[in-house]
């Protein structure tokens, strides 16, 4: 039981939920491959993972919206880690806009990042995951089930990621488990990229807190253990689960 000695790939590992997950995975004795576009952010996570006793850390700078990069990630991870037991599809962006102003290119981009790349990575790692009775965790969002004005494109891609999770869980059972962690509002740099003024961002964050029974944002460190739990062989009876870690947002 446990993650000790396993090899896990975490996408979007430079910041936020992905960084906390990579560090938590490393602290449990696993080797970890860190994927994201910014090498400096990945190196920061790598240093923290080594501090927590990581067996092996591999940094792979790549843009998961680019097919050739996705293929390269799979090749490097398989070669460097000598196979893969776990995959955390976490990389994501929040491009929110009212429909009248929204650019359909953002919908395509988020579909590539939240659905296509995860599917491609699962495909690429499948022989290894089957051989090792592996586990996939997709990080989706409460926006995949809650209807939210001005977040329809984002929510649609997260709903698709939830569907991919449940469909593949059935298709790949019993060899490979596929689950999702479904976060509510978590304090990460994802909010820094929103096209909002400081006041607009403060209002948006206050509205999210007001809609969250726990009355606050979560932290990445409160999400990471649940991703680890689903990766862990002790969750062998769990597949096709969409696990809310959301301060009660979807209750
Ligand atoms: N924070 C929340 O409230 C919340 C709520 C629900 C769901 N989520 C989901 O949680 C996941 C993690 O987000 P977070 O909140 O931790 O935000 P974050 O800190 O911004 O993390 C997202 C990560 O994805 C990486 N990324 C973005 N575009 C990429 C690309 N094209 N190729 C490779 N990597 C890419 C980013 O690194 P680079 O920029 O270096 O590539 C970044 O490290 C996302 O899927 C998000 O949708 C977050």
From TrEMBL:
Q: Name one GO molecular function term.
A: oxidoreductase activity
Query: Which SUPFAM superfamilies did the record assign?
Result: NAD(P)-binding Rossmann-fold domains
- UniProt-listed SMART domains: PKS_KR (SM00822)
| Record-annotated Ketoreductase domain positions | 6-184
Q: Which Pfam families match?
A: adh_short_C2
Name the PANTHER family on file.
EG:BACR7A4.14 PROTEIN-RELATED, ZGC:101858
Q: Which InterPro entries does the record match to this protein?
A: KR_dom (IPR057326), NAD(P)-bd_dom_sf (IPR036291), Sc_DH/Rdtase_CS (IPR020904), SDR_fam (IPR002347)
Q: What is this protein called?
A: SDR family NAD(P)-dependent oxidoreductase
Q: What is its EC number?
A: 1.1.1.-
């Amino acid at each position: 039981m446990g993650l000790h000695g396993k090899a896990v790939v975490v996408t979007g590992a430079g910041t936020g939920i992905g960084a906390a997950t990579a560090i938590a995975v490393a602290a449990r004795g696993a080797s970890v491959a860190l994927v994201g576009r910014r090498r400096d952010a990945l190196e920061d996570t790598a240093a923290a993972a080594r501090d927590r006793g990581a067996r092996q850390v591999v940094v792979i700078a790549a843009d998961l919206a680019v097919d050739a990069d996705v293929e390269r990630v799979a090749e490097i991870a398989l070669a460097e880690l000598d196979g893969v037991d776990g995959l955390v599809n976490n990389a994501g962006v929040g491009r929110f806009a009212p429909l009248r102003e929204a650019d359909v290119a953002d919908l395509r981009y988020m579909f590539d990042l939240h659905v296509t790349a995860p599917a491609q990575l699962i495909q690429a790692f499948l022989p290894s995951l089957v051989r090792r009775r592996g586990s996939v965790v997709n990080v989706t969002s409460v926006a995949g089930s809650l209807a939210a004005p001005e977040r329809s494109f984002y929510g649609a891609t997260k709903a698709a990621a939830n569907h991919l999770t449940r469909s593949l869980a059935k298709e790949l059972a019993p060899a490979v488990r596929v689950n999702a962690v479904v976060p509510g509002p978590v304090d990460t740099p994802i909010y820094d990229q929103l096209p909002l003024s400081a006041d607009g961002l403060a209002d948006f964050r206050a509205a999210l807190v007001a809609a969250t029974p726990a009355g606050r944002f979560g932290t990445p460190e409160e999400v990471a253990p649940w991703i680890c739990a689903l990766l862990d062989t002790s969750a062998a009876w769990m597949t096709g689960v969409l696990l809310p870690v959301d301060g009660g947002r979807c209750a």
